[in-house]
Amino acid sequence: MENRQDYILTQINEVSKALRRLLEKLLNLPAGDESEDEIQGIMQAQIAADKEALMVDTLNSIEDTELVRTLIETYGYTTDNIKQLADVLYALSAKVTANGVFRREALILYRHYLQGSKTSIDFLVFSRISELEKDEAATTGN
User: Domain ranges in the chain?
Assistant: First the structure.
């Protein structure tokens, strides 16, 4: 029984070495120079980039004119949920490379929020809309 356990542990060790060599090739790392923590950090950064790309692709797949309707009808968003998503997109736009997509979508959502909001004045939303409209005008040349 002990020989079988040793054999299994040896096989697991060999598979982990093979996976490490594969990751080194995929991530263009020098062989054996990176610690496990550094490799894990690199992998987490790649996963975060993939998630960002997926979010951008998802937002790009929905037409601007259909965004609010899709959120309400397909995902059950309320006016408050739409404002929260706009806040998230606005915050993300400062931190990610595809910020133009997030800024455009945030502007659409903020405009919808103001139209359906029961709050008479939301200065933060007004200031963000103003900022986003200026950015949009600057990028489109209007």
Answer: 1-34, 49-140
